[in-house]
Amino acid sequence: MKYFESIEKSAELLRLAVPLMSRQAAALHPVSYAVWYEYVAGNNPSLKAAVDAHAQGGAVLDENATTELFRRHIAERDEILAQRVTDGYDKVMADIADSATQAGDSASRFGEVLEKMRVGAAKRTVSDIDIGGLLDQTRGMQGSISSLKDHLNASRREITQLRAEVTKAREDALVDGLTGLVNRKGFDVALQACIAGGAEEAHGPSLLLADIDLFKEVNDTYGHLFGDKVIRGVAQILKGNVKGRDTAARYGGEEFAILLPDTPLAGALHLAEKIRADLERCRIKRGDSGELVARITVSLGVASFRAGESPDVFVARADEALYASKKQGRNRVSAAP
After folding, report:
1. Order of strands across the sheet with 255-260?
2. N or C: more exposed end of the chain, with fewer CB within 10 A?
3. Is residue 88 classed as helix, strand or coil in its secondary structure?
C-alpha cells in the first residue's frame, strides 16, 4: 500500500488513530496501527465496513480480530487485484470463444446452403434457386462476422486495460511507499538482472550502500514523523544523482543502495563522495516550528563487482566497506578491498 499523506496530514491521522487503537484489546503494535490508520484515513472502504460491523454492540478488537482485519483488508489487496485480473482475462477469452462459435455456426449454415445449391445446380434454372434464402444466409453470415469483429475490438481494449493494471501492480510492488525509490525486492531483481547480463569487472557494475548516521538519535529527539522526512530528503538526493540504468533503492530502514551497472570503482567512489558532500550541506527544517536541525550525514561503502561472485557476496563486500566508514567516524566513504 502506498501512502501519500503529508507530514501534517499523517500527524492528524495519528492523533485520530491512537485513541481508537487504545480502546481495543490488541497491543499497540504496527499491525494494529496500520488498521486504525487506514480506518481514520478513509482510504480503505472494505476495512472500515468490517471494523464498523465488528464494533456494533460495543465489541472491541482483540489480537486475532486485528490480525485478521490486517490480513484480509490490507495485506491481501494485491492478491485480490491479481484474482480480479485473472477473472477479467477469463471473461475476455470466454466472450471471444462465444463470438467465434456463433460465427462458426453461421458459416456452417451458409456452407450447407451453398452445398445444396451446388448439388442441385445441374437440375435447376436460376429461377429455381431460392435467392431469398441465399440472401438471408448471406446477411446472417455478415452479421455474425460483424459481431465477432466488435467483440474482438472490445476484448482488445479490455486486455489492454488489464495489462496496464498488471504492469502498475507489479511496479507498485517494487516501489517503496515512503520515498518513491525502488524497494528491497526491486533492488534484488535489478541486481540479479545486472549480474546475469554478463557484468565485466573493468566497466562495472559497482554498488554503493549508504546509511544515515545516528538515525536513532534523530528519531528519539525529533520523533518518527521527522525521521520519515529525513529519509525522504536523503532519497531525493539519491534520485538526483542517478541516471540511465542506475538503480537507487531504499534497502531497509535508514539504509539505501545504488546499483551502477556501467560504472567502474573509480567512478563509483567519485559519486559516493558527491552524495556524501551534498547531504552534509543540507539542512532539514522541522515542519511544526521551522527549526533548522543539525546536519544530516551518511556513511557509504563502495564495492566493484568481481567476476563470478554471487549477488550476496557482492552486497556483503559493500556492507563491509560501509561498516568500515561507520567504524572510522562516520560521514565518510570507504571502498571494499
Report:
1. 247-252, 255-260, 206-212, 298-304, 333-335
2. C
3. helix
CA distance 315 to 310: 9
At 310 the three-state DSSP class reads: coil
Whether 238 contacts 248, CB under 8 Å: yes
C-alpha closest to that of 179 among 237, 220, 140: 237
Give residue 275's pLDDT band: very low, low, confident or very high (50, 70, 90). Answer: very high
Residue 181's closest CA among 125, 237, 126, 101? Answer: 237
Any idea which residues carry the catalytic annotation? Answer: 254
Query: What is the spatial distance between Cα 171 and Cα 165, in angstroms, rounded to a whole number?
Result: 10
Closest residue by Cα to residue 232 from 218, 246, 217, 245: 218
Alpha-carbon distance values, 218 to 15, 180, 222, 271, 277 (Å)? 21, 22, 6, 26, 19
Q: Report the C-alpha gap between 197 and 152 in whole angstroms.
A: 38
Rounded Cα–Cα distance for residues 316 and 263 (Å): 19
Cell of 160: 489492454
C-alpha cell at 320: 563491509
Contact between residue 233 and residue 241 where contact means Cβ atoms under 8 Å apart: no
Strand positions, DSSP E, the chain = 206-212, 247-252, 255-260, 298-304, 333-335
Residue 104 DSSP symbol: H
Report the 10 Å Cβ neighbour count for 198.
7
Which tens digit of pLDDT belongs to each residue from 134-167? 556 666 666 666 666 666 667 666 666 766 665 5
Question: Are the C-beta atoms of residues 256 and 207 closer than 8 Å to each other?
Answer: no
Q: Measure the CA–CA gap between 329 and 332, rounded to whole angstroms.
A: 8
The whole-angstrom separation of Cα 285 and Cα 116 is: 88
Angle between helices 265-281 and 224-239 (to 10 degrees): 140
List, in sequence order, every residue forming a beta bridge with 292; answer none if it has no partner: 285
287/229 Cα distance (integer angstroms):
9
pLDDT in tens, 115-139: 666 565 555 554 445 555 655 666 6
